[in-house]
Every structure is written in C-alpha cells, then in structure tokens.
Specification:
The chain is of the alpha+beta class. Helices cover 27% and strands 29% of the residues. It is elongated, with a radius of gyration of 21 Å.
C-alpha cells in the first residue's frame, strides 16, 4: 500500500493513509498505524508524519486520541471542514423542541437530470420525501430529498416524524463524502407556503449530495427562511 508518488514526504504519508481509508482497508473506528510505525515505513521524521495526520484529522477522516493512537473516523464524517449534523440533534442541543411534518413520502420516476445526479437510469424508481422541520413550533427548514433505492431500500417504510432522514441514512448507509452548494435564493411557491413566508422572502438554500465509496446516496434541497438562520464559523491559526 505504500505510495510511489514523488510528492513531498508528508504528502506521501497522507496519500497512503487516505487511499487506505477510501478502499476500506481501515474500517470506521479501526486503530491505524502509529506514528512510530509510519516513521519507520516511510523513513521520514516524526514531524512529517504528524503533519500528515493533522491534515487528515482536519479533513474529518481520522480521530486522534493522545496516548492511545489514530483511528479511522466514523463514516458520517466527510472530507471537508463541514460535517453533516442531524437537524434534530442541532435543535435539541439548543434546548429547543424539534418536530417534523411529512408532506410527501413516495416513489417517483427519475427524470434525466435527477437520474444523472443519483447515478441511476433515467425513468427508474427513486424515493422522495418532502418534510418541514419545526423548532419550537416555528418552521425552520423545508427538506426536499431524493434517495437512491439501492442504498436505502427501506427508506419509505420509516416514520420520519420519529426520526430524521439524515439520522436514518447515517445508520443504514456507508457515507463517505458529500458535496454542498450554499446560496441566497427565493423559495418556490410551495416552499413559501410550507414555511409560512412570502414568495419574495430571502432564504438560505443548501443543496447537498452524499455518496458511498461507489454510489450516490441522496440529493437534498434544504431551504431555510433567511430570518431564522445564521452561518457561523471560527478560525484559529
């Protein structure tokens, strides 16, 4: 598994570990090679190995515990500075109450554009849910989601007033990576009605696609009233 890349020493170590994670060589939660083992394997300094591990940790691919070792991260962590968090957990962490109203839960035929995004044949059967999430009784998010049945064949059997699609898909799929787009946009007429806002009110719209190592799992359009949502972040040198 040792990389033959001519990249910088730390990059070679990082590539070796990242390729092993991508191939499933180290399962989620598995103990990975120690710094000493990597130093000997690649004939590099401990500082070089530490840089490779720090970058993998920053990307959410590994978890490090001082005095114990480095572990492959759970599969719901993604290779990004963003992590996918269950909205129910996010709301409850604020000490508030989450409730979901399911407006659609059915199978549909995929048009050409949707089929291409999910990696399925045009006209094939896909699953769709349309759910409005509430925080303390106030509509917070309209979630319009399509799911690849091959990845979650029992998706339509779930009670999404008791669990969220995100939580369920965490449990039944091997989530490996995600793609995001975030924009300020107006809601559709249906979304405005469901969220109880005007059709010209600004919204934060997140489009998210998630994947296993070999297939697309889901694509979701997440619409939030602009007055109810703030993006926050931090930076430390």
């Amino acid at each position: 598994m040792v990389s033959t890349s001519a990249a910088a020493p730390y990059a070679r170590v990082k590539e070796h570990l990242k390729n092993g994670l991508a191939s499933g060589y180290w399962a989620p939660g598995a103990l990975m090679p120690s710094e000493a083992e990597l130093v000997a394997q690649f004939a590099v300094s401990r500082m070089t190995v530490n840089r490779a591990l720090r970058e993998l940790q920053a990307e959410g691919l590994v978890q490090r515990t001082q005095g114990v070792g480095t572990f492959a991260a759970p599969l719901h962590r993604v290779s990004s500075t963003l992590t996918i968090r269950d909205l129910h957990d996010e709301i409850e962490s604020r000490g508030h109450r989450h409730a979901a109203v399911v407006h659609q839960q059915r199978a549909e035929k995929a048009g050409a554009a949707l089929a291409a995004q999910l990696g399925v044949a045009s006209g094939s059967r896909v699953f769709r849910t349309l759910i409005v999430h509430h925080e303390n009784g106030v509509p917070l998010q309209c979630e319009d989601r399509y799911v690849n049945p091959a990845c979650a064949p029992h998706y339509l059997d779930q009670d999404f007033t008791r669990t969220t699609p995100t939580h369920y898909l965490f449990e039944v799929t091997a989530l490996w990576r995600a793609q995001y787009s975030i924009e300020s946009s107006r809601p559709t007429a249906q979304e405005a009605t469901l969220l109880g806002i005007g059709e010209h009110d600004p919204c934060l719209v997140v489009t998210r696609r998630t994947f296993t190592r070999t297939a697309a799992i889901t694509i979701a359009r997440l619409v939030h009233p602009g007055s109810c949502y703030v993006l926050e972040g931090s930076f430390e040198p």
